[in-house]
Amino acid sequence: MIDLIIGSLVTGWDTLAGYLAEHVLTCLIPAFFIAGAIAALVKKDAIMKYFSPDAKKSTAYGLASVSGTVLAVCSCTILPMFAGLFKRGSGIGPATTFLYAGPAINILAIVYTAKVLGFDLGVARAAFAVVMAIIIGLIMAFLFRSHDADTKKKNAAMPSTPVVGDAEKPKWVVPLFFVFLVGILIAGTAQADWMIKFPIIYLLTLGTAFLLIYYFERDEVSEWGLETWDLTKKIFPILIIGTFALGMLSFFLPPEVFRPFFGTNSIESTFLASIVGTILYMPTLLEVPVIGTTFGYTSGVMAGGPALALLLSGPSVSLPSLLVISRIMGPKKTIVYAGLVIVFSAVAGFVYGMFFL
Question: Transmembrane ranges (predicted)?
Answer without folding.
Answer: 20-42, 63-86, 92-114, 126-144, 172-192, 199-216, 236-258, 270-291, 303-323, 335-355
